User: Fold these one by one.
Assistant:
Number 1:
Amino acid sequence: MRTAQQAGAASIEIAGLTKRFLTPKGEPFTAVKDVSFTVEPGQFCAIVGPTGCGKSTTLAQVAGLDRPSAGTVKVGGRQVDGVTDGVSFMFQTDALFPWKTVLGNVTVGPTLRGMPKKIAIALARDWLRRVGLSGFEDRYPHQLSGGMRKRVGMAAALINEPKILLMDEPFGALDVQTKAIMQTELLALWEQLRPSVLFITHDLDEAVALADRVLIMTSSPGSIKSSFDIDLPRPRGEVQEIRHDARFIELQHQIWTTLKDEVERAYARTAGVAA
Amino acid sequence: MTATVRTSSAAVPASEPDVYAAARKARRRRRNLIWVGRIVLPLIMIGGWQWFTTEGWVDKFFFGQPSGVWHSLVHLVQHGTAFGSIWLNLWVTIKEALYGFLLGTGAGVVVGLLLGQVRFLAEVVGPYIKVANSIPRIILGSIFIVAFGLGTFPKVLLAAVLVFFIVFFNAFQGVREVDQNLVANVKVLGASPLQVARHVTVPSALTWIIASLHTAFGFAIIGALVAEVLGAQHGIGLIISEAQGNFDPNTVFACMTIMAVFTLIAEFVITLLEKRVLAWRPPNRSETQVV
C-alpha cells in the first residue's frame, strides 16, 4: 500500500522557467526569470523568499493554471500543458465553498473525478476523522475557526491522494499556536501519503522544520539563489520541539544569512518606491 | 487593594440568577418600548392627517382623508368598480407583475451570468448596457402600449424591463465577485468549465441575485401599475387612473394600500426563499441597488 503510494508521487522538473505579465499600463513585467530546479518524487521542498518574488507564479505554472513565457515545466516526466493531473492546491485564504457543508467541501474532489457519491461521502467522512473534524460534517465554513477551516482544506486537498501537493503559504494567516499544530498535522499526514510537496512560505522556521530541501528565491525578477538540504531525521514529530534542536538552529542560521541580504534588498526597493 | 475588592464585592451582592433576571428584564423593557414606538408612530401620522384635513388646514379634496380612504376601500370591496370586482382587477395586476417579474428575473440571470463569464462579450456590450440603464425605462411603457395594445402583454413587458436591469447587474456583479482561489482550486481538482460554473460561479452569484429580488419585485409592481395607468382594460392602475380623472384621491390611496399589502406578502415569501436557499450564509450582506 505504502510503496504503491510512494510510487504514485511525481517529480517536478522546472527548467529555464520565465514568466512575463503585462501590467495594467501595458508594460511587460518579468515576475520570474530563468528558474530551474527539480523536486524528487516524494520530496518535501520549501521555497522561501521575500514578498513579491514570484513564488506563487512558479506554483501556478506547476499546477498548469498558467503557461510559462519561456522554459519548461515537467511533472512526472511529462510536460505541463493545461491543468496538471494529480495535483492538489492549498492557498493562504481557505478556498472552501462557503455554500457547502464541511462534508460537501471535502467530497468535491472525488466527485469531480467521477467517484460515485456514496463512496466519496464515506471517504470524506474518513478524511474528516483523520484531521480531527468528526462531528463537524454538517457545519458551514463560516461557523468554523480559522484552524478548523484549514483542516477542512487539508482534508479536501489530500482526499484525492495527490501525486503533488502545492501549498501557497497555507498557514500564513494563522496565529502562532494554531500554525504549529497544523504544521505537525501536515507532517503526519504527509508521511502517510508521501506526495511530492512544493511549499511556499516566507517563514524560514516553518520551511526548515517541514522540508527536505529549502530553496531561496531572489526578488524582481524572481530566480533561485541557493538550495539547502535539510538533513533533520524523519519522522520529525512535534514541530515546536524541532525548533530547539541544535542542528535546526544551525541550519536556520546558515540559511538566514543568505536570505537576509535578499529581504533587505527587497525592503529597500519597496521603501524606495514608497518614498 | 484587598480592601477595595472586599468593598466592591459587598456593594454588589447580586447572585447569578439575579443578574440573569435583571438582564432579561432590561431586554423585555427595551422590546416593549420599541413596540410602543412602532404603534405610536403611525397613530401620529394617520391621526395627524385625519385631524389636519378635518380642521381644514389641509384640503381633503386634494389630499384625501384616512376615513375617506377607508370608505373607498370598503366601497371597492363591496361594490367593485366600473371594470369589474376589485378582486378581478387585483388579480390582473398581480398576474402582470408576476409574469413580468419571472420574465425579467430569468433574462437578467441568464444575461448576467453569461456576460459575467465571457469577458469579451462584457467589454463589447458593457457601454451599451450603461446607456440602456440611464434611459428612463418607464417611458417605454408608452411605446409598449402603442405597439401591443391594451392587453396584458405590454404590462408584463414593462415590468420585465424594470426587473431585468436590477437582476442583471446583481448577477453580473455576483459572477465578478467569485473567489478566484476557489475557481483555481476546482480547476486543479479537474473541473470542466461547466463544472466550474455549477460548483462555483452560479452558487456564488446566487447570493447577489436573491438579494436583488426584494428590490426587483417592487419594480415589477411599479411596472405593471404604470403600464395600466398608461392604458388598460382592467387592473388596479386603471382604477387609479380613473380615480385621478374623478378628483378622488381617497380611491387612489385605497389602491395604494391594497398593492402595499400584496407587496408585503410577496416580500415575506421572498425572505422565506432567501433563508432557505442561503442557509449557509453568515448574517449580513448588502446588495448593489441599481435603480
Number 2:
Amino acid sequence: MSNPVIEIRGLRKAYGQNEAVRGIALSVSEGEVFAFLGPNGAGKTTTVEILEGYRGRDAGEVEVLGQDPRDGDRRWRERIGIVLQECRMEPLLTVRETLDLYAGYYEAPRDVTETIALVGLEGKADQRAGKLSGGQQRRLDVALALIGDAELLFLDEPTTGFDPSARRQAWEVIASLRELGKTVFLTTHYMDEAQFLADRVAIIRDGRIVAEGAPNELGGRAERATTIRFLLPPDVLQDELPGDIGRVEVELRGAGVAVSTDEPVATLNRLTGWALERGADLSGLEVSRPSLEDMYLELTEEPE
Amino acid sequence: MSLVWHQFRYDQRVFWRSPASVFFTVLLPLIFLFIFCEIFGGDTIEERGNVSIATYYVPGILTLAIVSATLVSLAISLVEARESGRLKRVRSTPIPTWATVAGRIGNALVISVLMTVIVTLIGRFLYDVEVPDSTIPALLVSLLVGAFAFSCLGFALTAVIPSEEAAPAVTNVAVLPLYFLSGVFIPDSEIPEGVLNFASIFPIRNFFEALFTAFDPATAGAGFEWGHLGIVALWGVVGLLLAARFFRWAPRG
C-alpha cells in the first residue's frame, strides 16, 4: 500500500446525547477513490466535516495529509479541494469569473480554461452561474474544487438531484480525477455510483463502520450465491423443473422463478439442457450476483 | 494585501451587476434626496439656525446612503452567501478569513465614499449646499468611523437572521424606525425631544449629527463631533465583538 492520505483511529463525535460517530477507523491511500456510504443520519457528513476541518471531535486521532484537520492552516488548505453537499454559486458571476476568483485564492492554481474543459463547461464559460442548470452548477462546483490543483478531493454527494445523463457526465469527470492521480473521498447514496467509481467502499451505520472493501467483494459479495431468474412457460408446472438445480423460489405472482445456486455454470447447463429437450422457452433468463445495493440494504437494514 | 484587492474587485463586480443593490443602495437615497428637497424646497429650519431644508437633508440622506451601503447591504449579502453555502466553501480555500472580511468591508467603504461624493455634488450644484473647506477633514473622518461601525453592525446583525428570505425584513426593522426617530426623513425640529433623546442612544442619530455639523454653515472650526463619533464608534466595537462571537459561516437553514 502506498502512503495513507487519510488516517482515522477511534473517532468519536456526539451532539448532546446523540452519538453520531462511535469509534471509527479508516485509512485512504494516495490515488485511491474511496466511497463512504450509509443512510441519512448514519454519521457520514459528520465524519467528512471532521476530515475537512469544519468540525471538532470528541475523541480519536485524525490525520489528513499528515496533519490534524483541527489545525489545518493555509498551506494545508492549498492541498485539499471540497465539494459541499449543497452550495449555490454566485449567480451574477460567469463560469470563468467564478473560477478566476477562486484561482486567485491559491498559490499555484490550475489553468482556468483547461479546468472549464475538464468539467465539460466549455460552451458555458461566459454564462452567468445563475443561468446554469442544476447539473451544470454542480460541475462548476467540482471545477472550483479542482482549481487549486489539490491532491485530495472531498466530494459530498456530488450527484444528488441529477438526471441520469448529468450523473453519467459527472462520473466521467470524477473518473478523470483518478487519471490525474488525485485521491478522492466520496460520499454517496447511489450504489451504482460507488460501483462505477470507487476502488474501495466503507459502509457506516449508526456511527460505526459495518463493512469495508472493494465494491465487488463487500460483505463477502464475491462468494455469495448466484441467482438465475426466468419466467416459467405457461404450460410448465414448477414441479416439472429438473430436481437437481438447487433452491427454487417462485416470485412475480407465480410466473417468475428464481434459482439460487453456488454452482452457476453447472446449474445453468442443466437448466438450459432441460429446456431445450422439453422445447420450453425460458424467456427473461438472467444470471446475477447480489448487487452492491443488495449488500448495502442487507448491511444497513434496521433490526426488527 | 493583493488577495484583498482580488476579492474586492469581484465583490465590486457583483455589487454593480445586482439590480437590487444598485437600486436600493445607490438610486433610492438619491430619489429621496430629490423628493424631500423638491417638496420642502425653500423652507428653512429655525431650530437649526435657519439653514435651508436642503442643507438639512444632504447629511440626512448621506446617513441613509452610508447605512444602506454598509449595514444593510452587508447583512443581506452575507446572509445570502452564508445560506447558499458559499461562505462555508470559501473557508475551505486558502484565503485567510481576514482577507474575505476586508474585501467586503472595502466594498462597503468604496460605495460609501462614492455616495458621499455624489450626494455632496448634488447638494452643491442643485441645492446650493456647500461643505465648508474647514470641515472636510471632519466629514471624511465621520465617513470612515461611520462606515466602519455600520459594517461591523452589519456582520453582527446576520447572527439574528435565520434565512435569506428574512434578511431584508430584519435589516429594515432594525434601521427604518431609527431613520424616522433620528430625523433622517423628518426634520428633527418636528420630532419631540423625548424621542430624539431616545434616538440619541443609537448610532444613526449620532452619525447624522456628526455629518450635519460638517455641512452646517454656522460651524466654526474643524467641526469634529467627537462625542457623537465616540458613540458611533462604541456601537461599532460592540458590533465587532458580537460578530466575532456569533457570526456564522455555515448555513443555518
Number 3:
Amino acid sequence: MKHLAKWGLTAPAMTAVVLFLLVPVIITIAATFGEHKGMFSPYVAFFTSGFRRTVLYRTIEVALMTTAISLVVGFIAAYVIAQMPGRTKSLMIIAAVFPLLTGVVVRSFAWLIILGKNGILNTMLLSVGVISEPFSMLYTEGSVIVAMVYLFVPLMILTLVGVLEGIPQDLIQAATSLGATPAATFRQVILPLATPGLIIGAVLVFTGSFTSYATPQLLGGEKQMMMGTFLYQRAMVTFDWVGASTIAAIMVVVTIGIVAIMSRIARRLNPMAV
Amino acid sequence: MTVSLTIQSISAHYGKTPVLQDLSLSVAAGELVSLLGSSGCGKTTTLRLVAGFLQPTSGAIRLGDRDLTTLPAHARDIGLVFQNYALFPHLTVLENVAFGLKQRRIAAQERRQKAAAMLERVGLSGLGDRLPAALSGGQKQRVALARALVIEPPLLMFDEPLSNLDAKLRIDMRVEIRQLQRVNGTTSLYVTHDQEEAFSISDRVAIMNAGRIMQLDTPEVLYRKPANAFVARFVGFENLLSLRTIARDGALVTAEGAGGAKITLSQDDFGLIPDDFILGCRADGLSVQQEGNGLPAVLGTRTYLGRAYQYQCTTPAGDIVANGALSEPMAAGSAAVLVPAPEQCCILTPEL
Amino acid sequence: MARSVHPALIAFTACVFLFLLAPLVIIIGSAFSDTSYLTFPPQGLTLHWFWNIFEIEAFRTTAITSLELALLGTALSLLIGIPAAYAISRYRVELPSWLSTLFVLPILVPEIVFGFSLMKSVTIGLGLPIFPSLLIGHALLVLPYSVRVVSASLASFDFSIEEAAISLGCPPLKTFLTVVLPNIRAGVIAAFILAFITSINDVSVSVFLTGPGISTLPIQILAHMEQFFDPTIASVSVLLMLVTVAVMAVVEATLGLTFLTK
C-alpha cells in the first residue's frame, strides 16, 4: 500500500516529464541520426561549415566572457554584501535580485536604449566630446556580452552570497585571531572554501548564456548569430529541421556534459561536504 | 614571557541593549581565570571584546603594557581555542597548526618543524597529514589547542572548548589543558558554563550574571564564602533564610525570621553576624536531628540520595531542604530540628 | 556591525548596484517620454504610451494569454509537483536518487531545445492546438520550482505530526490537506510566485509554441519592437515591472522578503 502511495504520488509528475520533455528531446536528437547520407552526416555538415563553426565558437566565447565577468563582478559584490549587518544585507540582496524578476525581454531591451545610435551612451560620449558622431554599438559581440552580464550578475550574486554564508563564522575568527589580515583570510580561507560554490555559479551562468535566445536575438541579431538564435532560424525561417535538431543536440551535449563534469569536480573539491 | 591582562571598566552594547556594564577584571601573569555563568551572562561577550571581534562602547583593555583597545583583531597576538574547534577543513592537521606561524612569515621548513613538535606535545604525532574531517572530537580539540599554543601567545583564551565533548573526555581534556597551561605559564582566560570544570582548573573564577561580575575569587572562597545571594545559589546553597537579629549575648546572636522562627548562632563559629542578614545553608549543612539547637521544622517528602536522606522540610520561615544521616531515617510528618553546620553555611548581607 | 571591508570593494559594489538598477530606471523614465522614439532622459512627460498599450489589441490579448498561461501553468505544476515533492521528502530513502534529477530536467535541458522539441512532437506530431501546447510547455518549465521549493519546505517539516494525526484517526488525504499543507504554506507560496514570474517572462519555450492568433506578452513585445521602436515597449516593460513589485509586496506581506534569500 505504501509502495503504491509513493509511486502513485510521483507518477503524474514523472509521466509529464518523460512524456513531454524527455521523449520529445530524445526524438529531436534521434532525428539527426536518420539521414540517408550517413549516420553522422548532419554533424559533419555542421562542423565542416565555416559559418556554423563560427556560430558555435562565438557562442562559447560569449558564454565564457559572460561567465568570467559575472564571476568577478558577482563575487566582489557578494563578498561585500556578506559582510553587511542583517538589515542592510537583506536590502542589498533584494536590490540585487529584483532585476532577476523583471524578465529577460525587459532587461535585454534596456540595453537597446542605452547602446543604440540615439542611445544614452552615444549621447553622453558626444556631449563630453569623446566622439564626433554616434557610432553603432549594437549588433556586436560586445553588446551581447554586456546584456548577458547584466542578465546573469544577479544570479551569480545570489548564488555566491549563499556560498559565502555557508562558511562558518568561527573559521574567519580563528584565522583572524591567528594573525591573518582580511586579505590573507580571504586568500587562504574564504576563497578555497568558496571554490566549489564558485564552480556551480559559473556553470549556471555558462549554460544559461550558452543556450540564451532572447538576448542574442535583440542585441546580436543576424550579424551575431548564436546557437539559440541559430536554432530558431533553422527551425522557423528556413525549415531545416534536421539542421535545427543538430544544433539542439549539440546544445544538449554541451550543457549536460559541462554540468556533469563540473558538478563532479565541485563535489570532489568540497572540503566541507560530509 | 608572561604578562597580565587588564580589563578596565568595559561596557558593550548590542545596538541599544547593554550587554556588559562597567566590567573590570585583572588576570595576573601566568594565572588562569575562568568566566563562569549561564548563557547570556556576558562571558562570551567579554572574550570577544578581548579578542577584538567586538568593540567596547567604553573602557580599555591592556595586555602587559600594550593597549589592545584600538588594535585590530589580527594584530592582538592572542591564542584562541573555539567551542566548535574552528579547524580549517581544507587544510591538513599540520597546516592547521602552522597557520598562525605562516601569518607571522615564518619559513616553511621551520613552520613544519614547530607544528610537528607541538602536535607531539598534545599527543597527536603522526596525524599531521590527516584532514580535520577524519578526526574525532577529542583529537580536533587537541589540534585546536596545538594551533593556539604554537604561536606562543602572551594570552590564551578558551571559549567553552570542551562543551561538545562527552563527559569522560571533558574531564581528561580539562586536566591536560590545565597542565599545558601550567607548564607554559601562559596567562589564560577561560569561558565556561560548567561549574565543576571552572572550579577544578582555575586559579580564580569570576561568576557572571547579566553583564556583571558577581564575585571574583578562588574556587575555595567562592564555594565556602559566597559574597551574595546569586553566587550562593550558583555554587549550590539550596537554602537562603532572611533573618533579623533580636538579641545578642556575647558571641551568641539570636535571630528571627519569617513566621517567628528563631535560631541562635555563635559568632565564634559563623563569623561576624550583622543585624539584618541572610543565612545560607547547604542541604548538607543542615543536619536533621530530633532535638538540638537549631530551626524547628516539620519533615515532608524524603528522597534517597545514596549518601544521605534528603528531606523537604516546612518551617515557619519557609521551605527548607536538609539532609539527614542514613542511620537515622525519619518519617514524614515528624517534627525535627535542623542544626546548621558552620563550614557548610555562610552569612550574607541582603542586597538593597 | 559591518565587518571591515576595503573601501575600494565597497565603491566597486556601489557601481555594481548602479549597473544593475540604472537600466531599469532608464526604462521607467523613457516610458513617459513625449517623443515617438525611445529616449532618455524623457523629453516631456506623458502617459500616452501607457494608454497605447490598451489600445493595441495585440498587447491586450497576449497579456491575457500570458496571465492565463501563468496561472494555469503554475496551478498545474503545483498539482503534480506537490505530491511528488511530498513523496520525495517522505520516502527519501526508498525512492531512487535519479527521481530528483528527473524533476529538475526542465532546468538542465536548454529551454530553447525543450520548446523546439515540444513543438515538433506535440504541436505538429500530435496535432495539439496551440494553447494546450503552450500550457504543457509552461507547466513543465516551472515544474522544478514546484518540486524543489516545496521539497525544501518539507525538509524542515516534522513528519511526526502527520503520524500523530493519523494515530488520532484522521484519514491520509485529509491529514495531508489539513496538517501537512498548512505547515508548508510558505514553501507553496514561494514556489507559486517563482513559477508565476518565470512563466510570465518566458521567451525561449514560448517562441516555438506560439502561433497565429495566440502569443504571449514577451513574444509580442519582441514582435512589436521589430516594427515600432517606440516608448510603448518601455511602458509595457514598466507594467511588467509593476507586476513584479506587486508580487514582491505579496511576498513581503505573507512571508517577509528575506525568505527569498534562501
Number 4:
Amino acid sequence: MPPRRDEIDGYFRREYGRCVASLVRFFGDIDIAEEAVQDAFTVALARWPETGLPPNPGGWITTTAKNRAIDQLRREASRHDRHAEAALLYYQDEPPSSDERAGPVKDDRLRLIFTCCHPALARSVQVALTLRLLGGLETPQIARAFLVPEPTMAQRIVRAKRKIKAAGIPYRVPGDAELPDRLTAVLAVMYLIFTEGHMATDGDNLTKPDLCNEAIRLARMLGDLMPDEPEVTGLLALMLLTHSRRRARSAPGRPLVLLPDQDRTMWDQELIAEGQDLVRRCLRRNQPGPYQIQAAIAAVHSAATVAAQTDWQQILALYDQLAVCVPTPVVQLNRAVALAEVEGPQAGLDAVDRLDLGSYHPYHVARADLLRRLGRTSDALVAYEAALALTANPAEREFLDQRRRQLAAQ
Amino acid sequence: MKQYMLSVHMVEGEPPPPEDQIQQMYKDVDGVNAEMQRAGAWVFGGGLHPAETATVVKVSDGEVVTTDGPFAETKEQLGGFWVIKATDLDEALAWAAKATAACRGPVEVRPFQDEPEG
C-alpha cells in the first residue's frame, strides 16, 4: 500500500529532529541541514507513493538529504561559493565511523538540544529553536502556540540560527563540570513548553499544536538519551502525572476545575501508571531534585481516588523537602496550602501571610480560599478582587469571578 | 579558530574603588593576560583612558570633521578589551568568566567576522 500524504508528513515530522541533528554533524550548519531534509521531503512526496515506503524511512531520509546536500554544495562550490566550500570541507574533515570506534555513540539530537538551549540564547529563543529543530514544528505553528505574530517568530528563529553560526555556539554535549547547569536549562525549556500547553485553554483552536504532547515527546527523547539523569526521569513523570488530569480540568460551564473538585474517574490511568512507575524508579535511585519531588507530589495526588483520601501529611513532607532544594516563596506558598490541609486553614493562612508575594496572583487565590474557609467572607472577597486584577488567562478569570460571585451571594 | 572581542563595560562617573583594590585588579588582569598568552588564546588586549579623552572623526558632507568625543553619549562606556582566539563560544565564555572576575566589570563577548582568506 503506497503511503498517503499525511503518512509521509508523519514520518518526516517524527524523524525531523534526528535527521536534522545528523546533518548538522555532517555539515556543521543548521540551515544546510534543514534545507536538505526539506529537499528529501520533496523527493519522498514524489517517489514514495510510487515505490511504497522504504524499509527504513528514517535512514532513507537522512541518506537522501545528505546526498542532496552534497550535490547542491558541490554545484555551489564550483561557482566559488565560500560558504559551500567551507561546508564541504567540514564534511570531508569528518572521519567516517570515528564515532563507532570511540564507543557508544552519543545521539546527535543530544548535541543539538544543548545547542538550542545554550545560555547565550534567550529563553524564548531556546524554546522556539527546540520546537523547530527537535520537534520539527513549522514556524507558523510555533508562533500560534506562543501567540506571537508569525514574522516575529520567524525573525526570532533566523536571528538565533545566525547567532549560533556567527558566535560559534558549539554542537556538543557539555562536559561533566558544566552539565548540571546546562541540563537545568534544557529541562526548564521542556517544562516551559509543557506549562504553556497546560495553561492554554482555547481548545477550539485546532490549528494550535498540542504543546503538552510535544513536551512529553521531547522529554521521552531526552530520557532515552540520558537514562542516568534522575531529573530527566522526574520531569517526564511530572509531565505525565499532570497531563493525566487534563480531561478533568474543565467541565461544561466551568472553564477551570481545580484538583479537589475534579472528577477523578476522568483521569488517564495509563499516564498515571507510567508516571508513578517513573517516580518509584526515582525513589529507588535516591538522588532527589526539584522535578522528582514535584513528580512525587503529583503521584501522591494521583493515588487518591477521592480528594478526601489525599495523603496531605506526605505531601507536606515532600514540600518541606522541595523547599530545601528550591528555597523560593512560591514553593512556600504551595507548602502553606498543604499545611492548611494538615493543620487547618488558620495555620495555612498564617504561613501565607508571612510571604512577600503580593504581585503573584496564586498568592491571592490561596489567601481568598483560606479566608473563605475561615468564614471571613469580606476579606475573602477583597482577596479574590486582588487575584482577578493580576490574572490575564480567561479561564482562570472566569473561575475566580464565579468563586467571588458565589461567595458574595452567601 | 575564531576570534572574539571581550569588551569591558564601565559606568562613567562612578567613584573609583580604593587604591588597594585597584592594585589587586591590575594584578588579577595581568594574571589573566599571562594565562591567555600561555594558552595561545591571546591576540591583543588593553585598558583605555576614560571616555572623556575620546575624539570622534567622521565624514560629513564630504568634509572630515573632528569633534570632542565620545561617540555615544551614554554613561556606559568601553573601558578596555581583549581580542582572543577560541575554538567556539564555550571556550570564549570560559575566558570571559576569568576576565570579568579579574577586571570587576561585565564583559561582553562578540565574535569577529570571518578573517579574509590568504
